[in-house]
Design a protein that fits this description.
heterodimer, A: 5 domains, 7-stranded mixed sheet, globular, B: alpha+beta, Enolase-like, domain 1, 5-stranded antiparallel sheet
Amino acid sequence: MKFSVNGESVEATPAAGQVLRTVLRDLGQFDVKKGCDSGDCGSCTVLLDGEPIHSCILPAHRLEGVEITTVSGLGSPEHPHPLQKSFVDAAGFQCGFCTAGMIVTASTFTEEDLDDLPRLLKSNICRCTGYRSIKDAICGTSNTQTPASGAAAGRSVRAPAGLRITTGEEEFTLDVRTTGLLHLAVLKSPHAHARILSIDTARALAVEGVHAVLTHRDSPATLFSTGRHEMRTDDPDDTLVLDPVLRFIGQRVAAIVADSVAIAQRALALIEVEYEVLPGVFDPHLARQPGAPLLHADKGSDQRVTAPERNVLAEMHGEMGDVDAAIAAADAVATGTWQTQRVNHAALETHATRGWLDSDGRLVLRTSSQVPYLVRDELCHIFDLEPERLRVFTARVGGGFGGKQELFTEDLVTLAVLRTGRPVQYEFTREDEFTLASPRHPIRVSVTLAATADGTLTAMAIDELVDTGAYGNHGIGVMFHSIHESISVYRCANKRVDAESVYTNNLPSGAFRGYGLGQVIFAIESAMDELARTLGMDPFELRRRNVVVPGDDMVVVEPHAETDLLYGSYGLDQCLDLVQDALAGFPSAGSSDVSPAPDPEWRFGTGMALAMIASLPPRGHYADATVTLLASGDFEIGVGTVEFGNGTTTVHTQLVASALGTTVDRVRIRQSDTDVVKYDTGAFGSAGVVVAGKALLAAAEKLRALMLERAYSPGADSGGRGSAPAGLVSGEDGGVSAGLVPDEGGGVPIDLVSDELVEGGGVRIDLVSDELVEGGGVRIGDRHFPAEELLAAGPLTASGRHDGTPRTVAFNVHGFRVAVNPATGEVRILQSVQAADAGTVLNPEQLRGQIEGATAQAIGTALYEEMRLDGAGRVTTTAFRNYHVPRFADIPQTEVFFAETFDALGPLGAKSMSEAPYNPVAPALANAIRDALGIRPHELPMSRERLWRLASHATVDAASGEASGAAE
Amino acid sequence: MDLIDVQEIRVPSARSEIVIGSSEKILAGGTWLFSVPETGLTGLVDITRLGWAPVTRTASALVIAATCTVAELSRLTPPALRTDPVRAGSGYESHTDPYALFWHCANSFLASYKIWNIATVGGNIALALPAGPMISLAASLDAEAVIWMPSGGERRMPVADLVTGVMRTALEPREVLREIVIPFASLDSRTGFRRIALNDLGRTGTLVIARVAPTGETVFTVTGGTSHPVQLRFDGMPSAPELQERVLAIDCWYDDAHGSSDWRRAMSVRFAEQLRLELA
């Protein structure tokens, strides 16, 4: 059939059941994205004869003669559509995966439609931004600027991928053609717990187009964890690529590699498997009782499984002081048990890997990951490969939120490529994201707090039960992190922690923004609110009396423990003041205009909560970075950090442009590729700015010194050489001149020890550009040495490294004003305020976007999102239509404030701020709802049905799913 | 998504060409069919090229073809009545004109106006999801379904009876839903609309439409919250206790990710009473 795409006539012969989306991608139209493949998310929106439609559900047999317009048909980087420009200027995207569909949809809006955006954008999901910046983009509000040379740091610079994102040119993981590509499909376990007795693949293998069928007989015998950290020994070795024992519904039984996804999927039915069904356990409390079915009885301390005989993956029990005595002696006690739910990351780009052998026979993986280096290292461990035989890289990644700090697709692709010698792709469906990928850990937390009448906290007792599911990926780390900054933010003489992370036959849980802290902070901050009520004290005041201040040890239950966690800066006091003042100032210009009908039913309340977070994970986080001067006067940076909406890449260009007296458009980026720099632990634990950014800043500072050196050196110039003015190479730069090695003309990077350059006990690096380095060259007096001249004596590259220690702390405080209708359970957010202590704010608009996006995701967690299981291990919410990710209509505007602090440890005084803003939101909202209703919610999400039930004291309908939901 | 087992799509241009095999389905807009894996579905019969006029009028009724798109249907509501449905649960701006229902029911889809361009009225009814807003619309207006039988004849039944359960209908295999017939008598009524979901603009938790005919007959139609449409008929406006008793007597409250049965029941009771006062 013939139709047109962006004005060009095309011919295609779609398969009978094919949809427009895949037809377009088969034609190489990669600007049309797959977010859900079910018509729910809008990422695939195109115009069909001028009308916006979701191409993933449009049958292709109707295409004869139609005109299709995709986002790249609206404009190009050279000639952008006004919306393509305004989405860049407004900073209207983060990961950018939804952007094509968002712009195509908005391109049809009229002036009057701008008042109707909640309705018109209800089937466009953005998981990153919180929608405020999208509204700005559609309405033509610019939030960014173009700073002068050397002035980028601290300003709202646009993301470097800008117009490439908005015109659909930027490549995500699968947006590239590979000839001869095979596809992989997985046979999933129908049982929550079973052993494979026999498996016959002959019939499947006989199907034309099937190249391989992989079973546990093909699997390496090396145990590993899908969760990835710097130290592999942080995670349990409890997983195989293909395991003969199945521990959750959906676990891989076998994989088929075939010419197409359809052939592979159809052949799955021909694999004959005989199972021995084993008893399962689905409640983490029951799982640790005697007699419960055991999931990993064959493992033990060698695999870092603490107590396999009672399904306990990890535990921590400790007490300081005498908690019981303190409670007995207290004037006020608050206690309760809180339960959080499974939350799906809902990154719009699903997990996917494409792998092939390059011309040297080296295995190459292009994957949707936050941690390409950790993936490489673990695959080398599993498959016994030398690191030189494996390259792992990412293109731009469509969202992460912790969900891509895992090894979910790469291992099978490795196995399949090594087996077939052919390029192979494994792409998760949206349903796979719900049934195979690891959600946020559901955690039950009991808290008891005690205080004296003056509000001095005297006891904190925490009892925590974590459902890690069938495998332990992140189940250890999340548990230990969850009870750290949540507890250590408070000074208290008597503290007790009992925490266990327990295996069940449920879907494995994983890393999620906040890494366990949010769940425990929800409980503790709710209990603190209750304690303030009991004491008759203002909740801000109770916090002020008890939070740690510089000089205090940050203690969980072990006083004076050795730690690398320091106060590089402290802005919690400012954050508390900012939020309290903003709530008191309601209604203000920044308040949400969403107000309920003037109905006497509605009740009103305010609430707040705080959160502390370490600026990065403990026990090492390493980054190498390079900066190279190019003959054009541009700089090329090499950095390991993945860009998935974190905005790190923007900040990296700012740091380099500032250090080298140039503008961000002169900074070219090579990133997230094991071939680019030596090593990078990865983009998790909010490390992208404070670790890789520091390494990069160090490299840039060194390159600046090298450029100056070159200008004064014999090889640089025939005439204008002068003597180095005093102070040209500053005191901190001593390492540079000392470490300078003669260039040997071969472009070998000059490796210097970097750390002392920018650390030196927290030396503040001057932000003002050295007038001697500008525009990619050096100016000495009237004499200009352009880059070309500096490079005449050989290439100029500097590298930097940072090891992620010591670490600092960041703070967030959130406040809400709500109206709640007890008759329906509806919550209206009238005011949402967050104050963040992020140290130096390197990019105000981007940081605002991170905080708004985190707030939106947390509002989803607090009010709407809930992965439901049937009590026997089966996930029943397997599509966006059954799992409500917040839409435009759901998210109020959040007023964002920044504390004014300068961190001694971070780059240019900055701290990390991407997970942190998520953490205080749910308890602040719960406390506001408590204030309004007079009844405290203990369970997330605080859905309309739950709040209505609380308010009406209705008993739980036995027929409803509530009982099983709560028991999970 | 691609339906990998489908080997053939036929596009009949006349009724005589409609042949539906045992592992085949009728395809209208396709916005649902292509949104879920359809294992074992080998063929589709596309009924959107039969030339059915989307909306026609007879002497006594407004006739909506099964293939009328939701977008076309929504335009039956005059612009002045197309008020903001965001806060339908509370603070809803009420219209007693039944022509407002087309717009409100279209906006009761979880799906946006982009889907309305393709999705059809008949497809939504035949799919028989509790939250199917075209079912709410048709049932509340006492619309009749016209069904083409494979033998060549046709039969009629109320849409409220056509939908018998969650994704279950009274359609026999190979029958085709041709159109729905909305009697003008229903459109001479005064109506009221209430809906709530677990989030604003979300998939329906419960949807109650009340209709008072010129004769005084009063009908409350509950959908979304129930596994099939439930109509409560009264000769005149019931008293509050009478109405509440009838709503509470409904025995098919639905329970899924879009609302627990107890909440749906309570919201339905609340909305019925609000509508009773509004139309009294």
